[in-house]
Design goal:
By secondary structure, this protein is an alpha+beta fold. The strands form 4 sheets. Strands 6, 7, 8 and 9 form a 4-stranded antiparallel β-sheet that branches. The N and C termini lie far apart (157 Å).
Length: 495
């Protein structure tokens, strides 16, 4: 008898005495008449390269890796312990069982699907394979912990997936080209639209700015006009006030002068009266008799002098009143003159404004008339050119599209050839060209080229002398005229 303990990833299986079937535990006593074993529940990887055939009978390889191990629950562990615990998970026996189940289920599922369905719905295909395989592994107590189905591959001699990848690649490339072209188109169109929108907004803003500036200029001109009007009014009132102040000062000065003269006259009268009274009192004290005798005389003299002073004061008052009246008249005259000058200035301003408005109206009407005339001329020219274009188009159509024939017809119809001939004849009329022709006597012969050159010198020099008046140098030899030599140059006048 012994006490056995399993590892964390193991289970203890006991059979024999006192055990009806088998017993699973992590630890326990092994009694005599009993057998025991340990089995590992660690999952193992099974790498497979499955071969299957689709509904179109197209073969393909399906590389896959399955992580499979005993399922950690009593019923599953019992089945695994009963069926497979005596074999290692890496043994060929276990691998053959797992591979057979996976290949069989995979072929069954693939046979009911087309290649396109398998390729497009790989996740669904994988889930279906795992589901069916798991259902078969349950009877052995195994569980699929993980399944990794790799990319479908072509079998030897088949290129289906290669062509599919090429198709997908070319489709992606072409779609990318289409997307690039579409994006470029949208970018170009968007840029042009933005440019047009920018130009329209700039034009709109400039127009609004010009209108606003013109309104501000009109407001400024109106303000300046109001300012000038108010300034003229203030200047007029200022001048009138200055004139009134000046005249008031003159009048006040005259009034003060009058009061001064009156006070001076009264003061002088009082002074003289005091003097006379004092003198009379002194004389009265000196001699009452003489005073009484002279009193009457003195009184008369005093009265006479008083009368004279009174007359003088009255004359001074009259002169002061006259000066006051003259000053008042002068002030009234200056005021009237200032009013007339202001009225004349206002009248001149109104006349100038009316003339300026009339000139502005005249200029505007002349500009409108010129604009209307130019527009009508442009419309007339446009109609003429349109008619000519239609006529030329009809002529070209009449000549079957031969533009050269149509051009010659138009030139003949409009007399251009006749006009050209007339101008050419006029250009050469009155000319007298001088043409010299000579023969060296050596046509068609090249046996003696030096002799031919010297034979042509005398006629050449003679021609130069006739046409330019330049004599050849005296040292230049002259060739004798012999038989067969060149004749003298002939001058032909052609009118």
């Amino acid at each position: 008898m012994s006490y056995r303990i399993s590892n964390p990833n193991q289970y203890l299986v006991r059979t024999g005495a006192f055990i009806e079937d088998l017993k699973l535990s992590k630890k326990g006593w092994v009694l005599p008449g009993q057998r025991f074993s340990f089995f590992d529940i660690t999952p193992a990887n099974y790498t497979l390269n499955l071969q299957a055939m689709s509904a179109e009978k197209l073969e393909f390889n399906l590389p896959a890796v399955f992580t499979i191990g005993p399922k950690d629950e009593p019923s599953s562990l019992t089945r695994y312990a009963r069926l497979l615990s005596s074999k290692d998970k890496k043994s060929d026996h276990v691998q053959d069982i797992v591979r057979g189940i996976i290949e069989g289920e995979t072929r069954v599922i693939a046979a009911g699907m087309t290649m396109e369905e398998i390729f497009q719905a790989r996740k669904g295909f994988k889930d279906q394979v795992i589901k069916n395989v798991q259902a078969e592994l349950e009877q052995f107590g195994l569980f699929i912990y993980n399944a990794n189905v790799k990319q479908l591959q072509d079998t030897q001699g088949s290129e289906y997936f290669a062509y599919m990848r090429m198709k997908t690649h070319e489709g992606a490339v072409n779609q990318a080209k289409v997307d690039v072209a579409e994006a470029k188109y949208r970018g170009d169109v968007g840029a042009k639209e933005r440019e047009g929108l920018t130009r329209r907004e700039n034009a709109k803003i400039e127009t609004e700015t010009v209108v606003l500036e013109n309104e501000r200029k009109a407001d400024v001109a109106k303000a300046e006009m109001n300012y000038a009007t108010q300034k003229s009014e203030f200047e007029r009132k200022t001048k009138i006030a200055a004139i009134e102040a000046s005249q008031a000062a003159v009048m006040r000065e005259a009034e003060l002068q009058k009061e001064v003269e009156e006070r001076r006259m009264l003061s002088e009268t009082e002074r003289q009266r005091v003097t006379l009274v004092a003198k009379a009192t002194a004389e009265l004290e000196a001699s009452k008799a003489k005073a009484e005798a002279q009193l009457f005389t003195a009184q008369k003299v005093a009265e006479a002098e008083l009368y004279q002073k009174t007359k003088e004061n009255e004359a001074i008052k009259v002169k002061a009143d006259a000066k006051l009246v003259d000053a008042q008249k002068i002030a009234d005259g200056n005021l009237y003159k200032s009013n007339k000058e202001y009225e004349a200035a206002l009248s001149g301003y109104d006349t100038w404004k009316v003339e300026a408005d009339a000139k502005l109206y005249k200029i505007q009407k002349e500009a409108e008339a010129k604009l209307f005339s130019k527009q009508k001329e442009a419309e007339g020219l446009l109609e003429i050119y349109n008619a000519q274009a239609k006529g030329l188009e009809s002529i070209v159509k009449a000549f079957g599209g031969n533009t050269a024939a149509a051009l010659q017809y138009v030139m003949i119809d409009r007399g251009i050839y006749t006009e050209l001939a007339r101008e050419n004849a006029s250009a050469i009329r009155g000319l007298s060209p001088k043409i010299t022709v000579w023969n060296t006597g050596a046509e068609g012969s090249s046996s003696n080229p030096i002799a031919n050159i010297f034979q042509s010198l005398p006629p050449l020099l003679s021609t130069i002398q006739d046409q330019t008046g330049i004599n050849p140098p005296s040292w230049l030899a002259e060739m004798p005229q012999t038989k067969g030599t060149a004749p003298n140059p002939k001058t032909v006048l052609k009118s």
